[in-house]
């Protein structure tokens, strides 16, 4: 059965007064965008959703081996050729970024239909790994850097996101916002409770990144119930200077767009950073409770859609 939302049922003015502005988690403009996204989705029981379009660009899940291969080729170009990651023999030979999680994960794609509606049009990607898929491998990717027992013991559905990249000529355009819309749709469809993964800062010298790391630890450390910690043998202290000497705007201006995106959603970071020599980055664990992806209007509408899917 396919269910398409057609009309937004607004809360009463009494409800709005009770909630108050302080409880609104996203702006009204963002709320409208969320509702527009939901209104275009065809939610169904087999786990898919219709492509969301923004002009010539669209976001949807990969449907063929060729599209998954295109995502891996894009990852290689961005991570290894552009950002200076160090390829192993297989990656160097195939010009693909591939690991054991790719076969069990879903791959979210941004496609430029002016180029092609298939594999040749892939210009952005994000890998999505749910708990049931991770069990097929035996772990989440993040577990190679962090003790994630606080999450795996959490009574809710988990989604690990990673391997995010956008072709250089599409950055600063609609590609990244479309990926976020796709993730929000996926989270909604699969009833995800916590989104997590590793966010990367460029470079492998934590002292050069002291401002960003200190800012993140001081202002966005996860609550104890969700606070995952870097593995002891890989742990890098994030609180590297007096946080009261920092200028927040300057710190945020040096933060990668992806990490800033998590923070705008009310995201947290784990305890400790990890240096990834292969990918030439310093990683921080990022976590977002899915309820922070939308405000009261979205949650109100969500109940109606979930009831329809359960009927």
Automatic annotation (TrEMBL):
Sequence ranges of Basic and acidic residues compositional bias: 1-21
Region named Disordered: 1-33
GO molecular function, one term: ornithine-acyl [acyl carrier protein] N-acyltransferase activity
Keyword DNA-binding annotated: no
Keyword Transferase belongs to the record: yes
UniProt-listed GO biological process terms: lipid metabolic process
EC number: 2.3.2.30
InterPro entries: Acyl_CoA_acyltransferase (IPR016181), Ornithine_N-alpha-AT (IPR052351)
Name this polypeptide is given: L-ornithine N(alpha)-acyltransferase
Source organism (scientific name): Neokomagataea tanensis
């Amino acid at each position: 059965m396919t269910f398409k939302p057609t009309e937004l049922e607004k809360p009463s003015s009494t409800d709005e007064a009770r909630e108050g502005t302080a409880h609104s988690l996203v702006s009204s403009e963002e709320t409208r965008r969320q509702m527009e996204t939901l209104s275009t989705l065809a939610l169904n029981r087999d786990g898919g959703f219709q492509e969301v379009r923004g002009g010539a660009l669209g976001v949807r899940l990969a449907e063929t081996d060729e599209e998954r291969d295109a995502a891996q080729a894009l990852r290689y170009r961005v991570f290894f050729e552009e950002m200076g990651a160090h390829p192993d023999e297989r990656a160097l030979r195939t010009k693909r970024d591939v690991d054991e999680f790719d076969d069990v994960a879903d791959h979210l794609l941004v496609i430029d239909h002016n180029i092609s509606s298939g594999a040749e049009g892939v210009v952005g990607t994000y890998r999505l790994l749910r708990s049931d898929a991770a069990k097929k491998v035996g772990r989440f990717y993040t577990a190679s850097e962090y003790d994630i027992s606080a999450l795996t013991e959490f009574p809710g559905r988990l989604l690990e996101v990673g391997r995010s990249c956008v072709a250089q000529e599409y950055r600063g355009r609609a590609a990244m916002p479309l990926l976020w819309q796709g993730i929000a749709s996926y989270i909604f469809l699969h009833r995800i409770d916590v989104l997590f993964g590793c966010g990367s800062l460029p470079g492998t010298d934590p002292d050069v990144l002291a401002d960003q790391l200190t800012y993140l630890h001081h202002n966005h450390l996860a609550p104890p119930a969700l606070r995952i910690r870097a593995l002891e043998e890989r742990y890098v202290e994030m609180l590297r200077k007096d946080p009261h000497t920092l200028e927040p705007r300057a710190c945020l201006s040096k933060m990668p767009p992806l990490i800033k995106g998590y923070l705008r959603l009310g995201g947290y970071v784990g305890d400790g950073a990890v240096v990834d020599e292969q990918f030439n980055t310093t990683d921080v664990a990022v976590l977002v409770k899915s309820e922070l992806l939308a405000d009261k209007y979205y949650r109100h509408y969500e109940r109606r859609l979930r009831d329809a899917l359960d009927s």
